[in-house]
Amino acid sequence: MTARQEREIILRVAAVFRVGLGRDPEPQALAHFTHRLKSLPGGGQDEKGLAQLAEWVVASPEFRARHEGTDVLASEWGPAVFRAATGRFPVAEEYRDLRACISPSAIVAYVAARSELREDIDVFRLRYSLGAPPWDDGAYALWTLQHATLPLCSCVVRPEITVDLCLSVQPGEEAAARATLASLATNSDVGWTLYLVGSFAVLAALEWESVASCGQGRIVPILPDVASLCPGEAPFFGWLEAGDRLADGALSRIVDALAAHPQAVFLFADDDRIDAMGDRGDARLHSGWSMDQLLVGEATDGFCLFSRTRLDELRQEDWLSVASEGDMAAKRLRLALAVTEEIAPERIVHFPGVACHRASDRRGLGTEQEMHLVRRYLASHRPELRLEQARLVGGRAEHPRVIYPLPTRRPHVSIIVPTRDRAEYLRTCLQDVLHETAWEELDVLVLDNGSREDEMLRLLDDVARDPRVRVLTCDEPFNWSRLNNAGVAATRGELVLLLNDDVAIRHPDWLEEMVRQALRPGVGIVGARLLYPDDTIQHAGVALSEDGAAHLLRGAAADDAGYLGQLARQRDLMAVTGACLMVHRDALEQVGGLDEELEVACNDIDLCLRVIAAGRRVVWTPFATLTHVDGGTRGTTQTPETIVRHWRETARLVGRWGAWMRRDAVVSPFLRVTEHSLLLRENE
Question: Which residues form a coiled coil (predicted)?
Answer without folding.
Answer: none
